[in-house]
Amino acid sequence: ALRAGEESLCVFWKTEDAQGHWEHSGCSRAGGDTFYSVCTCTHFSTFAILVATSYAEESFALVVVTYVGMSVSLVCLFLAIITFILCRSLWSVSVALHLQLSICLFA
Asked: Of the four, 6, 24, 92, 107, which is 20 to 30 A from 42 by CA?
């Protein structure tokens, strides 16, 4: 359900020059209430309904949670990579796959 100060936005995925972004031209919210939305669009594409408290700026709490979460995740992934590399006695196909997955997520 939407809370006070939030609004839903009907969008579609637009790809340009091998990159994409959400675009709202040609799509509009035709109805609904706080529990659902009805969107209409003038074309076929990949559609979504975005819900945001503000489209112009991010909230400070969201930025803090993002940076703290990313930092903790990177530290834990680094420790996992070091553990997988140093514990050769536990080496198996499963450990090798977990090591590769950890490296990919860290990158």
From this structure: 6
